[in-house]
Amino acid sequence: MKLWLSSAVAGIGLLCACTVGTPLKDGGIITTNAGIKGTPLVLKFERGPEWLLNKKMGPTTIRITPQIAVWIEDTSGKYQSTLYVTQSFGAQKWKFLKPNPDTCFRPMCMPYWMNKYVSAGNPAPTRNHPVPDAVTAATPAGSFTLTTMVPEGLSVFTICVEYNRSFDKNETYTERRKESRFNGQPSAVFARRVDLKDTARAFDTLKLIGRGGENGSDAALYRDTEKLTTALAVFSSIVVQRKKG
């Protein structure tokens, strides 16, 4: 926490401005699904210029990093398995809030993944019904590597990533827009088909395929991404690589 003395008010009192949140740090490693049998997989996330948002709230400035979900689907688009969800959303452990333990707070955060997850028979993430610990971990502080396992029996699949950053507004998705609320721009969704039998390929770069809905009510993938701006610069690249077991 850093404190600065405001010279403009030094004669009449002390004004403290606080910056809170995780400091920027690259190179973190997140491991999920460590206890299951399957195929090792590694995803490398390189942060972009819009990774960190400094949001001023009164005398306090909060560092905001994105919420992230990673999952796999079969070739027909059917949800198969979650590989990683940031703990704030997956376990509803928000740093500065105490939401209702039976309510999913900010369902518009990652609606494309969440509604697919729920449609597969899982409860919506709440404090009383969090996503399993095996696939949740803290929000990374910068560029990071996700080491995980693809369940047995899946050799051809689509790997998907959805992310969203609070208060990431722009000229279209403003704070006054009812659907956006404090969400700002809706979530961005990236994906790539992976064929583990294609041994000639060691790397695959995920591509933007759409965005999530604005209010969290559906699992639709919206293709109109032309009005997303800073949301598309949160990551500079997301790459999946096969890892020999």
Would you summarize the structure shown here?
The protein is mainly beta.
Describe the largest sheet.
Answer: 6 strands, mixed
Through-space gap between termini:
42 Å
Q: Helical proportion? A: under 10%
Total domain count? 1
Output the strand order for the largest sheet. 8-7-6-10-11-13
Categorize the overall geometry. Answer: globular
Tell me the β content.
25-35%
Structural class of the secondary structure composition?
mainly beta
C-alpha Rg (nearest Å): 19 Å
Mean pLDDT: 87
Query: Would you identify the regions where 5 or more consecutive residues have pLDDT less than 50?
Result: 1-17
Secondary-structure element series: EEEEEEEHHEEEEEEE
Q: List how many beta strands DSSP finds.
A: 14
Counting DSSP H or I runs of 4 or more residues, the number of helices is 2
What can you see in these coordinates?
By secondary structure, the chain is mostly beta strands. The protein has one domain (24-51, 65-242). It is built from two helices and 14 strands; from the N terminus they run βββββββααβββββββ. The chain has a six-stranded mixed β-sheet. It has a five-stranded mixed β-sheet with strand order 2-9-3-14-12, with no helix packed on it. Strands 1-5-4 form a three-stranded mixed β-sheet, with no helix packed on it.
Defining traits:
245 residues; 2 helices; mainly beta; 5-stranded mixed beta sheet; disordered N terminus; single chain; 35% strand
Topology (elements, then pairings):
Blueprint: E1 18-20, E2 28-31, E3 38-47, E4 53-57, E5 60-64, E6 67-73, E7 79-86, H1 87-90, H2 111-119, E8 136-137, E9 144-151, E10 156-164, E11 188-195, E12 203-205, E13 207-211, E14 235-242
Parallel strand pairs: 1-5, 2-9, 7-8
Antiparallel strand pairs: 3-9, 3-14, 4-5, 6-7, 6-10, 10-11, 11-13, 12-14
